[in-house]
TrEMBL record, chain A:
Keyword Nucleotidyltransferase attributed: no
Protein's UniProt name: Dynactin subunit 4
Source species of the chain: Oncorhynchus mykiss (Rainbow trout)
Compartments in which it is found: Cytoplasm, Cell cortex; Cytoplasm, Cytoskeleton, Microtubule organizing center, Centrosome; Cytoplasm, Cytoskeleton, Stress fiber; Cytoplasm, Myofibril
Entry GO CC: cell cortex; centrosome; dynactin complex; myofibril; stress fiber
Gene from which this protein is expressed: LOC110504359
UniProtKB/TrEMBL annotation, chain B:
Function of the molecule: Part of the dynactin complex that activates the molecular motor dynein for ultra-processive transport along microtubules.
Keyword Cytoplasm: yes
Origin superkingdom: Eukaryota
Taxon lineage: Eukaryota, Metazoa, Chordata, Craniata, Vertebrata
Keyword entries, A-Z: Cytoplasm, Cytoskeleton, Kinetochore
Family: Belongs to the dynactin subunits 5/6 family. Dynactin subunit 6 subfamily.
Annotated source species: Oncorhynchus kisutch
Subcellular location: Chromosome, Centromere, Kinetochore; Cytoplasm, Cytoskeleton
One GO CC term on file: dynactin complex
SUPFAM superfamilies named in the record: Trimeric LpxA-like enzymes
Protein name per the record: Dynactin subunit 6
């Protein structure tokens, strides 16, 4: 029954800024705070940029310069698939002897999915396999660059004004801190010899470095304001009568992927460079430790740091559900898996009346009251035939089976609501956690190397609809 | 049709065609020269004869079937057998199914594509992989149908005939498979002297 193993069946509650319920496979566990974290309560940082088709790494500065596009790979403008370079043999006259023709290789771009080729747009075949393809220039590039420079200068000026106001207010209160700040600023810009003498009442020296930088940049950038035109180009006369050539009309998606030109005709769709993808790392917001850090190499899918919840928290899974009947007690078989290598003790506690976390349950649940003991995960257990099976005294009413680090146990469910919808139950699971990341204190007595702390998680199970 | 043509039950394979014994050919099927039919390809002429031109490439598990339309029972009378014609230099890729009655030249029907009976392909068309097309229309020349939504676009040049692949297969296939016997005929229309 693969549907019982779907990720949204068993949800764990994450205490963060928002209470998020999601399956254990999507959660992370910060072992310094000893708490579950979801994707919404961690900060995401960009680790590296890479191209998805040629898997080439790119440093962030270079990526920013190239507008996050790969230099070698192109996207088909028609179906957005990756373009491949194909070669044909073309007879071309030899440069030495115009009468003889030799076979030269000519390269063109082609899409394997929609059969678009670069010849469809009129791009000539290139004699170099890669690097010969250019994107067409935007006619407005110069104006846009000028506007960007002007606004950057304006932003810098405004920032200076703001800083000046801030420091001006603080001046009578912190003169000492000030002089240190001055030195620091001077070193930053390397303008030690050009310090202005501080005159009483004059603008603050600490800003000398800053204002001098602007002074170097003295040429002011002026832009011409955009001019509104009165006359607009008239529509062609046959605009309403000309029959539409449907294959020639570009779709909105094709048009908007090229915001520079937005061509209306398919014969003007030029290929664009492929967009880069990023690898991201996750960081716990409270303790600033990394929860997930991928490897730098784009071809590797492993992680340098991978603190995922499934490798620390015991996982509850539904194994079998009988027919659920309104107000009749049914027994549901669940499994609990221990991800760590040490023995774990798990206690299940039902939710009390008026529990603020218990908002979704539609049935009463009776969980086993005894403590369940889970054996540690032993990687070599499959191969070691001589291993003695550990002897746990299992109550057959509670524990259905036991297999290495997994046990199956029963819970009793009494559905309380007769309406349509899934029967949902929730309970709390309390287990011991040994923090191996904590530094080992030099123990004077014979202490256990790591002390266990008890963690409690709120779990919700979705058991499916009622049977009439 | 003369009685002799009605009595013809075996396939007429022109000289130069390479048809593997493991392929299933049922009914009145005529196959032109330089055509390669892979093993496990199926050409079934139930409701009428099939005429396949030259230089075609029919790959494994392709199904070319001239079947009765769904609302007509096989035994009802007054049903004229319609001939399915397939032109030259077409490619039927692995696993495709074609019921179209008229297919022109230089078309490519990609893997697992599905053509309905009322389609007419002109020349240079490419039906993309897994595209099911069963409208009642004539596909214009050089059309490409692709994608899960069967989007269309027109390409500027027709797909190249697979001459290199055909030559290679005609050399290599007889090394590994037995071939069906070819029949010497001057043209496909004249009845075969058996």
């Amino acid at each position: 029954m693969a549907s019982l193993l779907q990720p949204d069946r068993v949800l764990y509650l994450v205490h963060g800024e928002k209470k998020i319920r999601s399956s254990l496979s999507t959660l992370y566990f910060c072992r310094y705070c000893s708490e579950l974290r979801s994707l919404e309560c961690v900060s995401h940082e960009v680790d590296s940029h890479y191209c998805p088709s040629c898997l080439e790494n790119m440093p962030s500065a270079e990526a920013k310069l190239k507008k996050n596009r790969c230099a070698n790979c192109f996207d088909c403008p028609c179906c957005m698939h990756t373009l491949s370079t194909r070669a044909t043999n073309i007879p071309a006259p030899l440069p030495d002897d115009p009468s003889k023709t030799a076979m030269k290789k000519a390269y063109y771009l082609a899409c394997g999915f929609c059969r678009w080729t670069s010849r469809d747009v009129g791009m000539a075949d290139k004699s170099v396999a890669s690097g010969g393809w250019q994107e067409p220039d935007n006619p407005h590039t110069q104006r846009i660059n000028k506007l960007i420079e002007y606004y950057q200068q304006l932003a810098q000026r405004e920032k200076l004004e703001r800083d000046r106001k801030k420091l001006a207010r603080r001046r009578p209160y912190m003169p000492l801190a000030f002089s240190q700040h001055t030195i620091h600023v001077v070193e930053k810009y390397g303008l030690g010899t050009r310090l202005q003498r501080q005159r009483p009442g004059a603008p603050i020296t600490s800003l000398a470095g800053l204002s001098l930088k602007e002074g170097e940049d003295q040429k002011e950038i002026n832009i011409e304001p955009a001019q509104a035109l009165d006359e607009v180009e008239p529509l062609p006369e046959d605009y309403y009568t000309r029959p539409i050539n449907l294959p020639e009309v570009t779709s909105l998606r094709q048009r908007l992927l090229q915001p520079d030109f937005q061509p209306a005709g398919a014969s003007q769709l030029h290929p664009k460079h492929k967009h880069l993808l990023i690898k991201r790392s996750l960081r716990c917001r409270k303790c600033e430790h990394n929860l997930s850090k991928p490897e730098f190499n784009p071809t590797s899918i492993k992680f340098k740091i991978q603190l995922v919840a499934v490798s620390y928290i015991p996982e509850v899974r539904i194994m079998s559900i009988p027919n659920l009947r309104f107000q009749k007690e049914c027994q549901v078989l669940l499994t609990l898996t221990n991800p760590v290598e040490s023995i774990t003790h798990v206690t299940l506690v039902g939710c009390e009346e008026g529990d603020p976390e218990d908002i979704n349950s539609t049935a009463k649940v009776m969980v086993p009251t005894k403590e369940l003991v889970l054996a540690g995960k032993d990687a070599a257990a499959d191969y070691d035939e001589l291993a003695e099976p550990q002897d746990f005294q299992d109550d057959p009413d509670v524990v259905a089976f036991r297999k290495s680090n997994k046990i199956g146990f029963f819970i009793k469910v009494v559905p309380q609501r007769e309406e349509d919808g899934d029967v949902t139950v929730s309970f709390k699971i309390r287990h011991d956690f040994r923090n191996l990341a904590a530094p080992i204190r030099p123990s004077e007595e014979d202490d256990a190397p790591t002390e266990a702390i008890w963690l409690t998680h709120h779990v919700e199970l979705s058991l499916g609809p009622l049977v009439a | 049709m003369s009685d002799k043509q009605n009595a013809q039950k075996s396939a007429k394979i022109a000289a130069g065609a390479v048809v593997c014994v493991e392929s299933e050919i049922r009914g009145e099927v005529t196959i032109g020269a330089r055509t390669v039919v892979h093993p496990k390809a199926r050409i079934i002429a139930e409701a009428g004869p099939i005429v396949i031109g030259e230089g075609n490439l029919i790959e494994e598990q392709a199904l070319i079937i001239n079947s009765y339309p769904e609302n007509i029972a096989p035994d009802s009378e007054g049903v004229e057998p319609k001939t399915m014609t397939i032109g030259i230099n077409n490619v039927f890729e692995v696993g495709c199914m074609s019921q179209a009655l008229k297919i022109g030249d230089n078309n490519v029907i990609e893997s697992k594509a599905d053509l309905g009976r009322n389609m007419i392909l002109t020349s240079g068309c490419i039906i993309g992989a897994c595209c099911q097309v069963n409208t009642c229309e004539v596909i214009p020349e050089n059309t490409v149908i692709f994608g899960s939504g069967c989007q269309r676009r027109v390409q500027t040049e027709r797909p190249q005939p697979q001459t290199l692949q055909l030559d290679f297969l005609m050399k290599i296939l007889p090394n590994y498979h037995h071939m069906k016997k070819t029949v010497k005929t001057t043209s496909a229309v004249t009845p075969a002297k058996n």
